[in-house]
Amino acid sequence: MIKEKEASVIDKRAEIHASAKIAAGVTIGPWSVIGADVEIGEGTVIESHVVIKGPTTIGKHNHIYQFSSIGEDPQDLKFRGEKSRLEIGDHNLIREFVTLNRGTEVGGNVTKIGSHNLLMAYVHIAHDCIVGDHIIFANNASLSGHVIVEDYVNLGGFSAVHQFCRIGTYAFVARSMVTKDVLPYVKVAGPDSGLYGINRIGLERHGFDEDSIAAIQKAYKIIFRNKLTVEEALAELKPLAEKYDAVQALVDGLNKSTRGILR
Questions:
Q1: Which of 61, 69, 148, 179 yields a CA-CA distance of 20 to 30 A from 142?
Q2: Which residues contact 227 (CB under 8 A, 6 or more apart)?
Q3: What is the pTM of this model?
């Protein structure tokens, strides 16, 4: 059912399925195709030549630019047409030629994109990925299936993340091929995914005080510079994590890792 309220602007050349649900204040440009079981929230702008396939839910005040493919079938040979979905939050900028795929049965049948994210041109987010909030993916950044990206991550242009990896909060990844988990706050750069300390500039921009940054720096040395096993590092981190919540995120990242961490 199409709900075109007074503030909505839907071009007559757009193709919209009868089951699509369009909230007030939505703009849809010419030659865009809105498929069955698609829900678009209030104030969202869909430019021309966008294809959205359901089941897909898009929140409020997103802006999706031309030639994006949203909610298409997962690129997984095991997919047999089972019902799966894509969920997108609010206030996202999704630029030209972005591709966002729905989930698969193995991954719980859902791909999730949070809110306040910037996905630049040609970004690809594959099936069953979970992407948080306040994230920037630069041009051509790509996620394989089942990747988790936590809040405030910056993924640089042409970076790629292997399936089932986790990128921790406030991490900064620049032009890298990531094949293991990246802990929170860490800077990764280059095709060999080398580590370059903590993302100090990003932490300062987001209001971390000097004591917390110093504690994160100390924790980084424990994990990456003291040649400790993960178990030994966790033991040394415990008192620091009890004092600083920011360090607890590193402890959680170590405990959650299933692929091993970049070191």
A1: 61
A2: none
A3: 0.95
Report the C-alpha gap between 224 and 233 in whole angstroms.
9
Which residues have CB under 8 Å from 142's CB, separation 6+? 123, 124, 125, 126, 159, 160, 161
Q: What is the set of active-site residues?
A: 127-128, 145
Q: What is the pLDDT of residues 55-104, one digit of tens each?
A: 999 999 999 999 999 999 999 999 999 999 999 999 999 999 999 999 99
Residues 214, 219, 225, 226: is their CA dihedral positive or negative? positive
Among 132, 166, 141, CA closest to 259: 166
Q: Per this entry, what is the length of the chain? A: 263
CA angle 96-201-63, nearest 5°? 20
Q: Assign residue 81 a region: left if phi > 0, alpha if psi is -120 to 50, beta otherwise?
A: left
